[in-house]
Design a protein that fits this description.
Layout: H1 3-20, E1 30-33, E2 38-40, E3 51-58, E4 61-69, E5 72-75, E6 83-85, E7 92-94, E8 103-110, E9 116-126, E10 130-136, E11 141-142, E12 148-155, E13 160-165, E14 168-169, E15 177-181, E16 185-190, E17 202-207, E18 212-214, E19 222-223, E20 230-232, E21 239-241, E22 247-251, E23 259-264, E24 267-269, E25 275-277, H2 278-283, E26 291-298, E27 305-307, E28 311-316, E29 323-325, E30 338-343, E31 351-356, E32 359-360, E33 367-369, E34 375-378, E35 387-394, E36 399-406, E37 416-419, E38 422-424, E39 429-434, E40 442-447, E41 450-451, E42 458-461, E43 470-477, E44 484-494, H3 505-532
The structure holds 2-acetamido-2-deoxy-beta-D-glucopyranose (7 copies).
One 2-acetamido-2-deoxy-beta-D-glucopyranose is lined by residues 219, 221.
Length: 539
């Protein structure tokens, strides 16, 4: 029997066998990486057989690979050195598989009675997964505007692709994100890409049943912004003091960083940068009146420009060098007029107020303010006008004060003499003369009409004698106005004991002792009663 006939016979037998018995081979396919050893396992358990024959099926024709039987292993020349069959279980081993080894393999187990069992299985030689790489359709993207198409390509067989953002798989939603797989590549399309979409980083996994390869991390710059633009401080004071350390700052999230421009009303301010200082505002001569300031952020890549909210303020010069101008000559109560005026050397004065000795100065028939409160006329001056006048100039950014001391000469309007009217001989006598006046009055004393040498307000007699009795006249003269006033006082000096009245010292001491004794007795009695007579409870 020639080989062909033998093969045909076995083939026929194998059909009968396969129809008759349980499966000989498991479900395929068997996968193996190119170059590795492959073993095609059977489901046989200690089979009894005459021959086990393995075939490689090419275009429906079976091509014997190897046979094992009592005579041992016989390998077809084409497979010499690479193939063996385990005689206990029929496993076929192939060393370092080649691509051409892919295909269908079939086994026949032939027993002594000529019956045969057969099975078929597919062997897939997989090319190793390699060269997994991501490419983008764009070198850079604009948030919301760009549709990013990432292509992951790889080498290998029977590849499946997966996209990963960081550690989480990217799932297609069919709208914003779509994935299209092909044999050796996968396309991830992200429409209207967001800044957060690609920071992953993004990886692509290419896998067959046996291996998985990961691409290098991929990131793509997504330009965005400017987002909302903030200006700080958002609510500056309505007025700023000129020359102070103040600035506006502008900020916005943007990639690449935004460039900022400033506007005063609708006019652009020449000030590059995110900070606009008061110094710049002043240097450009702006800010004299209240005006709106805004900042605009521009992103060169996205082309978007966003405006900040408006802030508004005016710049005011501080008030400096306040000064009160007042009368310079000598002022006389009832006869002089004073004009006080208050001015500053610089600054914008918004309000003026006046105080005298710390109290608000109020208008009256004598005191008249100019309509702008810059001056006050006092006519006529009175002694009450002596004191410190203060003018307070203020605006919303500062306050400046100036003082003026007013001296109004007056008096004396009255003279008052005080002292003992009657004394005993040898007693001390003090007579006081009071005569309010500016400048202080010159005092002279007369006794019984005769000028004395005393020129002080206090007239002192160390030890009175009888002839000190008489009339004492105090004369006070204002040295400036020469106005003179006088007052008299009568003193009478009496003999010793003439002025005694009431009890002697000894009598007074006796009375005091008696009262103290009585008081002690009363207290003792109260203590005694409390101890001996308990107070009855009212309950
Ligand atoms: C593959 O098979 C060959 C020949 O049977 C053997 O020499 C080699 O050690 C095997 N390699 C592996 C990795 O099992
Ligand atoms: C982005 O899209 C908007 C609206 O679709 C469009 O007005 C704008 O010009 C686009 N920006 C760029 C830079 O293409
Ligand atoms: C991607 O990110 C890595 C690390 O964050 C960085 O080194 C690399 O330059 C980035 N590549 C691109 C294209 O932005
Ligand atoms: C202005 O103020 C800022 C912040 O308050 C401070 O950092 C800066 O040193 C100040 N500059 C001057 C000149 O005072
Ligand atoms: C007041 O002024 C008048 C006229 O100027 C003068 O005659 C008079 O003496 C003055 N009175 C005093 C108290 O100075
Ligand atoms: C005070 O001011 C008023 C009004 O300006 C003026 O009429 C008057 O002459 C001034 N008097 C003095 C003493 O300066
Ligand atoms: C002063 O006058 C009084 C009363 O007129 C008289 O009693 C007295 O003696 C006089 N004294 C002297 C020292 O002249």
């Amino acid at each position: 029997m020639d080989l062909f006939a033998f093969n045909s016979l076995l083939f026929l037998l194998s059909f009968i066998g396969s129809c008759a018995g349980e499966a000989v081979l498991p479900e395929g396919p068997v996968d193996v990486i190119l170059g590795k050893n492959a073993t095609i396992q059977t489901l046989l358990n200690k089979p009894t057989y005459t021959f086990i024959i393995w075939y490689f099926v090419v275009e429906g024709e079976r091509d014997r690979v190897a046979t094992v039987g009592d005579a041992g292993l016989n390998v077809a020349p084409a497979w010499e050195g690479r193939v063996s069959i385990n005689k206990d279980n029929g496993f076929l081993s192939l060393a370092s598989v080649k691509s051409e080894d892919s295909g269908d393999y079939s086994i026949s187990i032939i027993t002594a009675d000529g019956s045969a069992r057969t099975g078929d299985i597919q062997l897939r030689v997989l090319e190793p997964v390699s060269a997994v790489a991501i490419k983008s359709n764009l070198p850079e993207a604009l948030e919301h505007n760009s549709t990013v198409v990432l292509t992951c390509s790889a080498k290998g067989s029977f590849l499946k692709f997966t996209w990963i953002n960081g550690t989480t798989p990217i799932l297609a939603d069919g709208k914003k994100i779509t994935v299209k797989d092909e044999e050796l590549s996968s396309q991830l399309t992200i429409a209207g890409v967001l800044r957060s979409d690609l920071v992953g980083p993004i990886y692509c996994l290419a896998a067959n049943k046996l291996e998985t390869e990961k691409s290098a991390p991929f990131n793509l710059t997504v330009y965005y912004g400017p987002d909302e633009v903030t200006i700080t401080p958002a609510k500056p004071p309505q007025f700023l003091q000129a020359g102070t350390n103040f600035s506006l700052s502008c900020a916005s999230h943007s990639s690449p960083p935004a460039t900022f421009t400033w506007h005063y009303g609708q006019k652009a301010i020449e000030n590059p940068g995110a900070v606009l200082t008061l110094k710049t505002i002043e240097k450009l001569g702006l800010g004299k009146k209240a005006e709106d300031y805004t900042c605009r952020a521009n992103n060169a890549k996205t082309g978007r420009t966003i405006s900040s909210p408006v802030v508004s303020f005016a710049v005011l010069d501080p008030i400096l060098g306040a000064k009160v101008t007042g009368p310079t000559g000598t002022l006389i109560a009832g006869n002089s007029t004073a004009n006080l005026s208050c001015e500053a050397t610089s600054g914008t004065v918004k309000t003026r107020t006046w105080t005298k000795d710390g109290q608000p100065l109020t208008a009256s028939s004598r005191i008249v303010f100019s309509s702008d409160m810059s001056s006050v006329m006092i006519n006529p001056l009175q002694k009450e006008d002596n004191g410190e006048f203060m003018c307070v100039l203020s605006n919303p950014v500062n306050q400046n004060k100036a003082l003026h001391k007013m001296v109004v000469n007056y008096g004396p309007d009255s003279v008052q003499v005080d002292g003992e009217k009657a004394v005993e001989v040898n007693e001390l006598v003090t007579i006081m003369c009071a005569a309010p006046s500016i400048p202080a009055a010159n005092i002279t004393w007369k006794f019984n009409g005769t000028l004395t040498s005393v020129t002080t307000a206090k007239y002192v007699i160390e030890k009175a004698v009888y002839k000190n009795s008489g009339t004492y006249t105090c004369e006070a003269q204002n040295p400036l106005t020469m106005k003179t006033m006088k007052a008299t006082h009568t003193l009478s000096v009496k003999e010793e004991g003439a002025l005694d009245e009431g009890l002697s010292d000894g009598a007074i001491a006796g009375i005091v002792i008696a009262i103290l004794v009585a008081l002690c007795a009363a207290i003792a009695l109260i203590m005694y009663c409390r101890q001996k007579v308990p107070v009855e409870s009212p309950y």
